[in-house]
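Re: weekly structure request thread

Next one in the queue (149 aa):
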Amino acid sequence: MKVLIIEDDGLKFKHLNKYMDETFPVSMIEWKKSYQSGLDELLTNSYDLILLDMSMHIYEESNSEGGGNFETYAGKMLLEEIELYNIITKVVVVTGYDVYGDGTTLGSLKDELRRNHGEYYLGTVYFVSKEENWKKELYSLITTSFNSI
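Done, posted below.
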């Protein structure tokens, strides 16, 4: 299984990378840290699974620039691009927010994503690094969707 992790937090990426590598038959894990680098990667390479952060910068940070605007719903924007370009993949959103700044709850976000992106969207996992529940949720979503694992 080829996996793309689009995540701006290095610690969260390390947790996800380690878990995926130890738990599933992963042939490759690629890491992108922004909306734009994730989109560029999706348009040039194919992946079986994308672990997608919801909130991130539009561009990756460089030594001279800060990474552009921070977008609370960059993950939704990427799901829309996946649909627009008819990219064949599956997506699990992995977020550390249970309530967003505009008052949107994790439950209502899940419902919206399921309604609008059901073909690609497997579900959302609430990630808290010090807890283990995210691993159980992620395992269930992946094994339910990929029967050959």
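The chain has a mean pLDDT of 92. The first strand starts at residue 2 and ends at 6.
Next request, please.
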